[in-house]
Amino acid sequence: MFDLDSLLASQDGVVSRAQALGAGLLPHDLRRMVRRRELAPLHPGVYVAHTGDPVWVQRAWGAVLACASPRGVAGVELGAALAGVSAMRAADGPGRPDGDAGPIHVVVPRSRRVVAPEGVRVTRTFLLRDRVGWNLGPPRLRYEEAALDVALGTVGDLAAVGAVARAVQGRHTTAVRLQHALAHRARAPRRDFLDAVLRDVADGSCSVLEHAFVTRVERPHGLPRAERQQRAGTVTGVVYRDASYGLRLLELDGRLWHDTAEQRDRDFERDLDAAVEGRDTVRLTWGQVVGRPCSTAAKVSALLERDGWPPARSCGGGCALERAA
């Protein structure tokens, strides 16, 4: 049986009433420690071992313990775990304090009903046992599960891509593992889009971004139809240009995170080869194509008009091309 000091050391100075009693303390012992300011209430039935403001990890422990099952507090599986952005923040560690503000997100089994304490948001879900790292401190959803929850809960495709990008960029998981986790969510919103993005990331291609360029930038704004995947022989080998408008080249950069120096070097070499041929290259990213399609269409149109192409048109009310007219 754990003693109180061991519990506090393993849980960043936070303990629940049920845990303390299970470790051998009596109710009057707890009351005495609170009077002596050795423990301070964090949530009903949860204490922290100081009287100052709790740091983020103590808030996280407090949220999990406040929502824990009474039958699980003495064992590994507490019946509650960090979820979503809170699970990702816990995995990022103390060097990434950007997620410290806002409520702590906790997930519990679907069969349980929990009243969320102040500063805590509770979600109920099925099959929690196999989706949580119960040995972690605090217990939390596995990173790919948390990242998918965040991605699927965002507003807009670009925000969903950003959540996936953060997960892979931080090296806590991989595109393949995210794909496997997503495969178990047949009814998830935006599932097909994310699956296509992850499949392309795993394969190293950017066809989803190419499709987004056609359907969000080129076609709705009446831009000229580009010649796609144009084969070109250069001094450094054969390459395929994503989109060609005569001498104007558009390369669609579908990567979701900062690349290695070698990868970026290859991109710049392609651009230099194009310049040797007398062709200018513009690189477009996810943010420009998915997040700002109208603005991007207006700027691409301005470039093409210099080359003699007809101007693009507005796609509707509020379009950047309409405002520029």
Write a concise keyword list for the protein shown above.
single chain; 325 residues; alpha+beta; Trna Endonuclease, Chain: A, domain 1; three-stranded antiparallel beta sheet; 12 strands; elongated
Question: Overview of this structure, please?
Answer:
With 325 residues, the protein is α+β, with helices and mostly antiparallel strands. The chain has a domain at 208-324: Trna Endonuclease, Chain: A, domain 1, CATH 3.40.1350. 43% of the residues lie in helices and 17% in strands. The protein is built from 14 helices and 12 strands. It has helices spanning 4-10, 17-22, 27-35, 56-66, 84-92, 143-152, 157-169, 175-182, 191-203, 207-218, 261-276, 286-291, 293-306, 320-324, and strands spanning 14-16, 40-43, 46-48, 81-82, 104-109, 120-125, 132-133, 140-141, 227-234, 237-245, 248-252, 280-284. Strand 7 and strand 8 form a beta hairpin. Helix 6 (143-152) crosses helix 8 (175-182) and helix 10 (207-218) crosses helix 13. It is elongated. The protein starts with a helix and ends with a helix. The model has no long low-confidence stretch (mean pLDDT 86).
CATH topology of the domain at 208-324: Trna Endonuclease, Chain: A, domain 1
The total count of strands amounts to 12
Report the structural category.
alpha+beta
Write down the Rg.
Answer: 26 Å
CATH architecture of the domain at 208-324: 3-Layer(aba) Sandwich
Q: How is the largest sheet built, in terms of strand order?
A: 9-10-11-12
Total of helices: 14
The span between the termini is 75 Å
Helix content: 40-55%
What percent of residues are in strands? 15-25%
Shape: elongated
Name the CATH class of the domain at 208-324: Alpha Beta
The biggest sheet, with number of strands, parallel, antiparallel or mixed sense and barrel status, is: 4 strands, mixed
Name the quaternary structure.
single chain
Mean pLDDT: 86
Low-confidence segments, given as residue ranges, are none
**Helix and strand succession?**
HEHHEEHEHEEEEHHHHHEEEHEHHH
